[in-house]
Amino acid sequence: AYKFKILFMSATLPSALIKYLCENFEINRFLDYSKGYEEKRRVLWEYTYEQIENSVEDIIREKQRGKKVLIVVNTVEDANNLGKKFENDYKLTYGEDFIVFHARTMYKDRKEKENWLNNNQEKPHITIATQVCEVSLDLSYDTMFTELASLPALVQRFGRVNRYGNKAEEINVYIFKPHVKDPQSYPYSESDLKISEEIIRELEGKNLLNEKQL
Question: Of 135, 71, 151, whose CA–CA distance to 103 is shortest?
Fold first, then answer.
C-alpha cells in the first residue's frame, strides 16, 4: 500500500508461506539457498528420558576437556536452579567457569553477560540459557545439552552448535526429557513436545542424513 521495499528472510521458510507471498505480492527476486543444507550436517544428537540435572557431571567433564558447553532449559527457574547446583554442589565459580543467561535479566546485567560471552568465546566455559539463546547469541558451542522443546525451537538451538562446520561425525547435542511442573504455564504444549520427540527419535544419531532433511 505504501510502496515499501520489503525483504523476507528465513532459514526455514515454509512452502505454504512462500506460495502465499508469491500469490499476493509482487516478488521481484526470490533467492533460495536451501540446497546448501543438503551439504551440511553440523549436529548429531542423542535423546534420553533422563532429566538434564542428572547429567551435571557429564557437562562438567566436557568443559574440563576444553570444550565450550551450552545448556538450554525451558524456564528461568530451572536455569537459576542449575546455576546454584554448579556453585553449591560442584564449587564452580560464576563468571569464571559458567554463566546464566536468560531474558529476565535487567538490561545492564544482560549487556555485561553478553560482553562476558564475547570475551570468552574461545575459552572453555559453560553457558546456562533459556530460549533467549535461540536468537541472540552469535556464538558457536562445541557441545549442547538441551531440554526437549518444540521442533522450531530445537532447530534454532541446533544453530548454536558447530556453526562454522559442515559435518559432525560424533554426538554433539544431548536432548533430555523436559522438566514440566505446570503444563498450563509451560512454554510448550504437550502436543508440541510429543511431535518434536517423535521426529527427534526418528532422526537420532546418524539417521539424520543432512540438514535439508530436518
Answer: 135
**Integer Cα distance of 63 and 50 in angstroms:** 20
Phi-psi domain of 91 (left: phi exceeds 0; alpha: psi -120 through 50; beta: other): left
pLDDT tens across 111-148, in order? Answer: 899 999 999 999 999 999 999 999 877 889 999 999 99
Assign 3-class secondary structure to 121-177.
Answer: CCCCCEEEECCCHHHHCCCCECEEEEECCCHHHHHHHHCCECCCCCECCCCCEEEEC
CA angle at 153 for the pair 148 and 154, rounded to the nearest 5°: 50
Burial label, 92 (beta-carbon count in 10 A; 0-12, 13-18, 19+): middle
Share the mean pLDDT of the chain. Answer: 92
Contact 125, 63 (CB under 8 A): yes
- How many Å apart are CA 176 and CA 49, to the nearest integer? 6
Positive or negative, the CA dihedral 145, 202, 139, 73 is: negative
For the full predicted model, state whether its pTM sits above 0.85.
yes
Predicted confidence (pLDDT) per residue in 19-44, tens digit: 898 888 878 788 888 888 899 999 99
CA distance 21 to 2: 17
